[in-house]
Amino acid sequence: WPDGMVRVSGREFNGLAESPCYQRGQLSCLTCHSMHGGDPDDQLAPIARTGDVCLRCHEAYAAAPARAAHTHHAPGSSGDDCYSCHMPHTSYGLLKAIRSHEVSSPSVEESARFRRPNACNLCHLDRSLTWTMGQLKTWYGIAAVDAEELDDDERALAASIVWALRGDAGQRALAAWHMGWAPALAAAGDDWQAPFLARLLNDPYAAVRRIAAASLRRLPGFDALEYDHVGAPGARAAAPAMVSDRWRALGTSRDDPALLLPGGALDLAGVGRLVADRDQREVTLAE
Per-residue pLDDT tens for 102-149? Predict the structure, then answer.
């Protein structure tokens, strides 16, 4: 990312080495990973399946009341997991989002300055950066960013929608993946993302198209979606309308993620404006 934080897979140690827990603490690769005793998929040791491993050092949050006072989320929820806030999925690799290995804290300022999605809005997909600023100020005393740091869309619209429709290819891939991520669907609902993912089915990047389709299949009513992300251009071009028609037939009562009108109708003009403003610069993420 523009501030130097790792954006691709295969650079996990580079991120770890920039973390306070590594530089001033005891965190190492072996804190969480075990070559022979861990999960074959990611070599995570059993204790590292959740952020409870962090409590080995951060003992002040071991007791449930202290932890709840710090996280401001219900015990056992994804927001109560240290990883969700301090190691969000802001790296790309293997056609999916991957956890950042630079331990950090959510920051709207960094999202505004460096266009890197923050942990809060990657889970609360239906919320704006303005909402996140308010939560961080209320809970942790973090000052709001200056008004000029955010444009009108970033202030008013759900951040995930802005990243998905207007962002560069890397941002679109991350936003699309999180629209199918179970903790985010639990936090933000799962009946409004389809028309936004639909726009990505004809994205210029095959990786974005594949991720969007995978997330769509995790939404109610789309598990049997037939779509080939490397299929004929004509078929790909017809896919967004097909998905949007299906979504309208299913219906939604939501109107709070901006760009959904009262009654759940899609603000087509707003969507078109964001897509027209899309960051079309070439993105090469060398994993």
Answer: 999 999 999 999 999 999 999 999 999 999 999 999 999 999 988 788
The encoded tokens of residue 123 equal 């889970």
pLDDT at 159 over 90: yes
Quick one: how far is CA 236 from the chain centroid?
Answer: 24
| Inter-residue contact 144 to 112 (CB < 8 Å) | no
Q: What is the pLDDT at residue 213?
A: 98
pLDDT above 70: percentage of residues in the chain: 100
CA 199 – CA 77 distance, rounded (Å): 31
Based on its alpha-carbon atoms, the radius of gyration of the chain, rounded to whole angstroms, reads 19
SS (H, E, C) the chain: CCCCCCCECCCHHHHHCCCHHHHCCCCCHHHHECCCCCCCCCCECHHHHCHHHHHHCCHHHCCHHHHHHHHCCCCCCHHHCHHHHHCCCCEEECCEEECCCCCCCCCHHHHHHHCCCCHHHHHCCCCCHHHHHHHHHHHHCCCCCCHHHCCHHHHHCCHHHHHHHHCCHHHHHHHHHHCCCHHHHHHHCCCCCHHHHHHHHHCCCHHHHHHHHHHHCCCCCCCCCCCCCCCCHHHHHHHHHHHHHHHHHHCCCCCCCCCECCCCCECHHHHHHHHHCCCCCCCCCCC
187-241 per-position pLDDT tens digit? 999 999 999 999 999 999 999 999 999 999 999 999 999 999 999 999 999 999 9
What contacts 187, CB < 8 A, 6 or more positions away? 78, 79, 123, 124, 125
